[in-house]
Amino acid sequence: MAWPAAVLALTALLTSPAAPAAAAAPAGRDFNGDGYNDLAVGTPAAPGPNGTTGAATILYGGPGGIGGHTVRRPAADCKSDWNVPCRGWGTALAAGDLDGDSAADLVLVGVYPKTQIDSWKSGSVKTTAYPYSGPGAVLGSGLSVGQFDGQPGADVVGVDDSSGFEAGGGTYPASRLTARLNGADWTRNAFHDGWVRVRSMATGDVHGSGRSQMAVIISKYTADGQEEAPYLWLLDDLTRQPASVEDGLWAWGGLCTTANRDVLGCPKKDSRLAMGDVDGDGHLDVVMATPSSRGLQIWYGSAAGFSQFPGFSAHDIGWFDAGAMTGQDLAVGDVNGDGAAEIVLGAPKAASAGRADAGAVVVVPGSKSSPRGPVLSAARIVTQDGMGSADPIGEQSQAGDLFGASVRVLDVTGDGKAEVVVGAPAKNGGAGMLVVLRGSASGVSDAGAQVFHPGQFGLDSPQTAFGGILPL
Q1: What are the counts of helices (DSSP H) followed by strands (DSSP E) for the chain?
Q2: Could you tell me which residues come within 8 angstroms of residue 209 by beta carbon, excluding any fewer than 6 positions away?
Q3: For strand 196-204 and strand 186-189, is the pairing parallel, antiparallel, or unpaired?
Q4: How far from each other are the two terminal CA atoms of the chain, in whole angstroms?
Q5: Torsion over CA of 330, 421, 380 and 329, rounded to 10 degrees?
Q6: Alpha carbons 431 and 283: distance in angstroms, whole number
Q7: Distance of alpha carbon 331 from alpha carbon 200, whole angstroms
Q8: Which end of the chain has fewer surrounding CB within 10 Å, N or C?
C-alpha cells in the first residue's frame, strides 16, 4: 500500500502533555540490574559452532538509549537427548524475574528437535534448562512471564501447537495452554473442552489484583475439522482444566454483521491482541486490531471489570489497509509520557517510496480526555524514509524489507517516555535490522533514533533475520 498524501498529513506533531508521568514500560526487563529496561532480540537461524543455530542478543538500556550488548548462544557441545545439536535458540523469548532477585531473566525457546526452554541472567556464564517434552513443537506463541497462579513466584506460560487431531480425512493443528507455575513441572491444559486453535494472545493484570489474566483470539473446531468464527475470551484462571473463561469480556465473530460490528466485539482469524492503558485511568485495556475489517476495538478496564461490549470501536479506518497490515504486529505503551498509552501497529506489507512490502509503522496516540482512548486523526506513520518531513531513521526502504514485522513499546532511557522498537527482519536480503525510535512529549521523536544491524554483534549470516523476534 502506498500512503496517500492525505494520510501522511496526519503525521503532524501531537500536542505536548501538561505534566510528565511515570514510565509505562513493562516490568521485569532489566537484565543487568542497573535500573534501565533492556531489549532482547532472538535470531534462531544464526549459525553457531558444531551445527548449533540460534542466538539471543541483549541490548542494554541507559539514559542515552541503547549502549552495550551481550550475545548468548548455545554451548558448542550443546546437544539434545537425541544427540542432535541444539538448534533454533531464540525461536521465542520472554522476560521476567524468575528467581526474585529484582533482575530479569531471559527465557529462550529452542528446538533440539524437541522443544527446549532455557533461562539466562546477566553475569552468568551458564543457562538454566527447564526441560519441556513438546515433540518438536515451537512452543512460544505468546510466551509470557507473569504471576498467573496467585502464588508467590513468577510463572511462564505459552501456547503449544504441537497437538493435532484427525477429522474428515485430514489432520488439523490444535493449541494447548502450557505453563510452568511457581517453579513446578510443565503442564499442558486445555483451553476448552474441545479442540481449538489460538490465533493471538496477550497477558496482563487487568484487574489490578496482582494476578495476571490471558486474553485470546481462539477458534473452535467442529467435529469434521472446520473452524468456527473466532472468539475473544479472557481467561481468568489458567490453573484450571480447562482454563476458565471470564463472563465479562467475551465476543464471537459469528454474531457480527456490517450493521452491528461497531457495537459488538468482532474478532476474526487475523485479529491481534495487546494490553495497555489507552485511556490513562490506571487500568489495563484490551486492544484488538483486525486488518481484514480495517478495524480497531478496545475493551476498557475498570475497577468493576470489563463490559462485554467494546468501549471503542471503529472500522474502515482510512490508514488501516488490510494488505499492508498482513502479518501485522501490535503493541501498546506510553510513548509521550502523558499516562495514556499509544497503540503501535506494524504494517510490514506496506509499500513505501514505490517499493512493495517495504513496511511501515502507525502510531496512534491515546488520550485521557473526552472522548477517551485512541485519537485516530492524530495517527503518525513512520517508514525508513521518514516521518512527515523528518527522517529519524536515515535508512532507505527497499522492496521486501518488512519493516514493522515486529513492534514493541519499551522505555529503555528511564525518562517515562517509552521507545518504539521496530524490526525489519528481511532487510538487506534477510540479514535484518532493528530500529529504536525515541519517545518524547510530542510522541515519536523526529531525532535520536538508533539503528542496529546484526553485523554489529558478530551475527554475519545473510539469513539472520535480526529484529524479527522480540519478547512480548
Answers
A1: 2, 29
A2: none
A3: unpaired
A4: 27
A5: -20
A6: 39
A7: 13
A8: N
Is the bond preceding 242 in cis, omega lying within 30 degrees of 0?
yes
For 206, the 3-state DSSP assignment is coil
| Distance (Å) of CA 369 to CA 20, 248, 306, 334 | 16, 25, 20, 15
Length of the chain: 472
Cα–Cα separations (whole angstroms), residue 456 to 399, 421, 461: 23, 17, 12
Q: Which three cell numbers stand for residue 409?
A: 513499546
Cβ atoms of 405 and 359 within 8 Å: the answer is yes
Q: Which of 246, 416, 227, 259 is nearest to 337 (CA)?
A: 416
Of the candidates 298, 380, 276, 365, the residue with the CA atom closest to the CA atom of residue 25: 276
Which DSSP symbol is given to 119?
E
What's the rounded Cα separation, in Å, for the pair 88 and 45? 6
The half-sphere exposure of 314 on its side-chain side, counting CA atoms within 13 A, is 12
In order along its 472 residues, the chain shows pLDDT tens digits of 444 333 333 232 222 233 333 333 345 799 988 999 999 999 999 998 888 899 999 999 999 999 999 999 888 888 776 788 888 889 889 998 888 888 888 988 887 656 667 777 777 656 676 666 554 455 656 789 999 998 888 899 988 887 778 887 888 888 888 888 887 888 888 888 888 999 999 999 998 888 999 999 999 998 888 899 999 999 988 888 888 888 888 899 999 999 999 999 999 999 999 999 999 999 999 999 999 999 999 999 988 888 889 999 999 998 888 787 777 899 999 999 999 999 999 999 999 999 999 999 999 999 998 788 999 999 999 999 999 888 999 999 999 999 999 999 999 999 999 999 999 999 999 999 999 999 999 999 999 999 999 999 999 889 899 999 999 8
Angular region, 455: left φ>0, alpha ψ -120 to 50, beta rest? alpha
CB 432 within 8 A of CB 423: yes
- Give the integer Cα–Cα distance in Å for 171 and 469: 28
- Give the type of residue at 272: R
- What three-state secondary structure class fits 429? helix
Q: Which residues does residue 30 pair with via DSSP β-bridges, in sequence order?
A: none
Q: Kindly state the cell numbers that stand for 404.
A: 514493522
Per-residue b/e over 274-296, b at no fewer than 16 CB within 10 Å?
Answer: bbbbbbbbebbbbbbbbbebbbb
Phi, psi of 456, deg, nearest 5: -65, -20
Closest CA to 429 of 395, 394, 463, 458: 463
CB of 423 within 8 A of CB of 431?
Answer: no
Amino acid present at 61? G
Give me the DSSP letters along 326-340: TT--EEEE-SSSSSS
